[in-house]
Amino acid sequence: MTKIKDQLIVSVSGDREVVLTRLFDAPLDLVFAAFTTREHLERWWGLRKTTTRVEVLDFRPGGAWRFVERTEDETKYVFRGMFLDIKSPERFVWTFEYEGAPGQISQTTFQFTEEKGKTKMTATVLFASDKERDEMIKAGMEYGAAESYDVLDELLLQIGGLA
After folding, report:
1. Cα(95)–Cα(72) distance, integer angstroms
2. Residue (of 9, 45, 4) closest to 24 by Cα position
3. Total-model pTM
4. Long-range contacts made by residues 91-100, C-beta under 8 angstroms, separation at least 24?
5. Which domains does the chain have, with CATH numbers?
6. 1-10, pLDDT tens digit by residue?
7. Which of 127, 141, 149, 154 would disulfide-bridge 133, Cβ 3.0–4.6 Å?
């Protein structure tokens, strides 16, 4: 398998949704594990110049999650939510809240499909309003996601024994 670095595709759907689509050159089980296990998430979540600590990851319907991302100057960004639905390894749904904007809670459905050893990830993010969606886009949602997924792509090569 050769590494193919596909780009993140971002589209706006309806008045409250953003859809992120990314193809990873790795099998479904490996990609799903990277999205749902502490040791993998801490290696790819966030920007390259940040570190992430997974404080809580109770991967079951009704279970909580909480990630703390720190920048080089020790600025802290905390994200949290709850798992609503899980169908391993094809999909999971969680709520997402940035603690710096309390009360602005979105819901993301992650869908994973495999074809010829590659995995397509589609994340459909539903915001409470078009205003919240537009604020998240303006804050750089797609750039942060693209960088994180690039790091994930590199990690998948390592953990898949391809590096």
Report:
1. 27
2. 4
3. 0.91
4. 92/35, 92/36, 92/59, 94/65, 96/125
5. 9-159 (3.30.530.20)
6. 223 345 899 9
7. 127
